[in-house]
Write a structure and sequence with these properties.
This protein is α+β, with helices and mostly antiparallel strands and 182 residues long. The protein has a domain of 125 residues: Glutaredoxin. Helix content is 29%, strand content 22%. It is built from five helices and nine strands. The chain has a seven-stranded mixed β-sheet with strand order 3-2-6-5-4-8-9, with helices on one face. A two-stranded antiparallel ribbon has the order 1-7.
């Protein structure tokens, strides 16, 4: 049994689920092995800075928006779906963080991967969330192809990735408030 399956089973056994996994992606990733004649490079690599991808999305009204248009602010991108229990569970902490930030300096992009925009909009309304939700206008960029949702990416004003979190987290903390201060 694969280690990640054991960990997931242990989490489910304890009544804890911190991410919704894409099993098809996971199976493909598990079967991709390094050929026996290829040596893995274990030397420390120069860190690569991931940049905010050029990405088209639409807002709740169907208006086109690009992720790049938010450069100049810190940008919090949370990939989620209304059907995902950990996504729903972390929304109150994201809402609390949203309330504590300066909207002139920080942009929140709650990027719903629901099949229907209406599902995400209904969840937002039912939960009394006042954060903006967006929907992919094109295929997700490579950086956002994650193994689990929710996943959160935080970019600085220059569009450089400064934090990535796959799975659920508590965003209503002083650490996140400080990270988003300009």
């Amino acid at each position: 049994m694969k280690l990640n399956t054991i960990i997931l089973m242990m989490g489910l056994g304890m009544g804890t689920l911190t991410a919704c996994k894409n099993e098809a992606k996971q199976d493909a990733a598990d079967t991709a092995a390094v050929p026996p004649n290829v040596e893995m490079n274990t030397a420390p690599a120069t860190p690569v800075v991931s940049l905010m991808p050029a990405f088209k999305m639409s807002d709740e009204k169907g208006q086109p928006v690009t992720l790049e248009s938010l450069k100049g602010k810190k940008v919090v991108v949370n990939i989620w779906a209304s059907w995902c229990p950990p996504c729903r569970a972390e929304m109150p902490s994201i809402q609390n963080l949203y309330k504590k930030t300066d909207k002139e300096k920080v942009a929140f992009v709650l990027l719903s991967v629901d099949d229907q925009m209406e599902d995400a909009a209904a969840f937002k309304k039912k939960q009394n969330l006042n954060m903006p939700i967006f929907f992919p206008g094109e295929q997700l960029p490579l950086l956002f192809n994650v193994q689990a949702i929710p996943s959160t990416f935080i970019f600085n004003e220059k569009g450089e990735l400064i934090k990535k979190m796959e799975g659920m987290d508590d965003y209503d903390t002083q650490e996140y408030v400080d990270l988003l201060k300009g």
